[in-house]
Amino acid sequence: MLMIKKLIILIISFMFFISIPVSREVEAKGISIFVSPPVFELELKPGENYKDEIHLLNKSELALPIEARVVNFSTFGEMGSMDFDLGEEDISINPRKWIKIEKPNFILEPNESEKVKFEINLPENAEPGGHYATILFEPKLPSFYFEEKVLKTIPQVGVLYLISVKVEGLIEPETPLTVVEFNIPENLHLKRLENFLVGFVGLFTEVIAAEKQAFSIVETGHLSFTLRIQNNDIYHVKPKGKLLILTGSDKIAGETEITETTILPGKIRQFPVEFKPELPEKLEKYLPASISNFITRNLLFGNYRASLRLTTEKSTIEEDIEFFAFPWKFGLSAGFILALTLFFLIKYKKRIKSAVLIIFRGIKIKKNS
Prior knowledge:
Blueprint: H1 2-7, H2 24-29, E1 33-36, E2 39-44, E3 49-58, E4 64-76, E5 81-85, E6 99-101, E7 105-108, E8 113-121, E9 129-139, E10 157-165, E11 177-183, H3 191-202, H4 209-214, E12 217-218, E13 223-231, E14 240-247, E15 252-258, E16 268-275, H5 281-286, H6 289-297, E17 302-311, E18 316-325, H7 328-347, H8 349-368
Parallel strand pairs: 2-10, 12-18
Antiparallel strand pairs: 1-3, 3-8, 4-5, 4-7, 4-9, 6-8, 9-10, 11-13, 13-16, 14-15, 14-17, 17-18
């Protein structure tokens, strides 16, 4: 199994294929293979049969001998890194053994397409739940395409199969999705200020540990959130939604989209969530990027609530966290400038007043003349 994993050097894009040159010579010619559709999402019952076809297009100027093979698909890590293997021998849980390709070896002529027919036969004892496989299409290039003593990198393109085996009478989990973690990363917190205020409040009231943990003070309006979701279902789910930033009076200060992401059964998936306040379109258009960035970083001040709203076909998730935005560096600079301005106004009040009077008298004389 380990040898198979090592031999599978591939790049798969579920929306499109990104080609990699196998040598400098081939790079000049260009090798590009495209598939359609890139994903089959199917709901089937044990014993059911399904037939369809894949369109494979060779956009290069080379005739490519193609070998198609089926491997099981899974993910590892919380960022959804792809994993491929041959799976268990038990056919009831091995989707690789369910998919048969009518013509797994063929030659794809330059700028021509091929219809690759396949058939899926679920066994009667197919285990309910989500099962995932991939058909990999690999060019079998002759040795003269590669330079000597150069690592041979072979481009592959894959088609993903998301197969949900449905059986009547299954009891669905009460909470198919669980929020494992939703917070603002520690590196964005003003920890010293948080600890000081929590300790100060603790002199007068009893502060429990949970409240200490929930108390967040941040400096910048450019925020990243840690969001980790666990799929407790036996089928894959695809949550999507929004993160709303609300003021203390529940007015929307901004929002960011959370794109639809697939979570396989039993897996925890991390969602990168970034928030940046938006300026009015006209202001954004004419301001230099550096000034615009400075303003948005210091735009939030006061108490806010980050409201998470995720939906799937079966469930909805809503969870909130509160934080206080305190751009102290900007506030300190603004306060210093204001204090300096007041100091000069008070100290040189008479001189400023005299100068203003002279200016106005000059303007009046000019108008009368």
